[in-house]
């Protein structure tokens, strides 16, 4: 029997308040999160933004108990999935690889090598694909694969996104229905889907399928739910000065309030675990905005975490990935090979003709001077555009 592994990919979050700065540095060092014309600018800018943002971010983590619950929940999901796979006769080990905090993806891959995994299913814990989330993790894995010839022996398969999975949709519909039942008149409550935003340019210039997948996902959940409630989709958690996907959650809430809607149920849909943006941003910040707008009955659907139907759907995804259509029982488990490069960043690189290089060089110098000025004075141009 081939040794089977499942690698769950996730973002990661700081376990303690003192980890917040380093976590933010890791996040902003990722060119899939902030894209700069020159790789050498990445780390200084990441350090700069992380340092400036750390205090606010720490305050938010303080409000949810001093750290992110993401590691604990993701490890529970991994355990639950491993048990479900074992029950189904699939003797697989489930690993967790976080992008920006422990246990890092690199650590998971090192363990996978030590365990001599032969067949690996790579499953991001993001139902929808985005360049900034699953895409970033796939890119990191691709780099690890290129740098380590021993990894070539592992037969891997990637599940790029899976929001269409019926089990996932059913679990979401279940949680929404349960929450609606808490309202005096369940059919009257407005269902408010709040997805994590991305900068608009990811979609318009980078070709990120994220927005389309989020919209499709929302429609499918509503179909599965099969109820008469009105619904809205909006995007939360914007950072920085550029335009992000619209409508923004805070604006959409105010608009609903103005229309006289008093009861809403918020459904976080980009993420399957509780994390800072559900526990702090939705439960505290958006609740306050909604209440000020006259929405008196504001409830939130919990994240899937280890919901049994959800874990079961992850199990089916893994089992399907391990089974090629032509496979018979007597055959060795052979995952379907898919190309990892399914994301569109390549089209999005900066032009590097020689004339452009000269100009890029000049602009980079200007940018660097601006950065130093900002560092010294605390009131440079980056401050004014609102990035910091
Ligand atoms: C599908 C989910 C997510 C997308 C898309 C996404 C894009 C994205 N995020 C930032 C900046 C930050 N994200 C931060 C935390 C964070 N982000 C996600 C998910 C998505 N991000 C999660 C689950 C978390 C929280 C982890 C936890 O600790 O619980 C943060 C740090 C927190 C803060 O300071 O607000 C930042 C910053 C960008 C710029 C981006 C798209 C380009
Ligand atoms: Fe984020
Ligand atoms: Fe946020």
Instruction: Give the H and E element order.
Output: EHHHEHEHEHEHHEHEHEHHH
Total tally of structural domains: 2
Using the alpha-carbon principal axes, give the shape: globular
- Proportion of strand residues: 5-15%
Q: Could you tell me how far the N terminus lies from the C terminus, measured between alpha carbons in angstroms?
A: 53 Å
Question: Could you name the CATH topology of the largest domain?
Answer: Rossmann fold
Please write the CATH class name of the largest domain. Alpha Beta
Number of helices: 13
Instruction: List the bound ligands.
Output: the ligand C=CC1=C(C)c2cc3[nH]c(cc4nc(cc5[nH]c(cc1n2)c(C)c5CCC(=O)O)C(CCC(=O)O)=C4C)c(C)c3C=C, fe (ii) ion
DSSP helix fraction: 40-55%
The low-confidence parts are: 325-356, 376-381, 383-388
Strand order, sheet with most strands? 2-1-3-4
- The CATH architecture designation of the largest domain is 3-Layer(aba) Sandwich
Overall pLDDT level = 87
Q: Rg from C-alpha positions?
A: 22 Å
Biggest β-sheet description: 4 strands, parallel
InterPro entries: Ferrochelatase, Ferrochelatase_AS, Ferrochelatase_C, Ferrochelatase_N
Catalytic activity: heme b + 2 H(+) = protoporphyrin IX + Fe(2+); Fe-coproporphyrin III + 2 H(+) = coproporphyrin III + Fe(2+)
Subcellular location: Cytoplasm
GO molecular function: ferrochelatase activity; metal ion binding
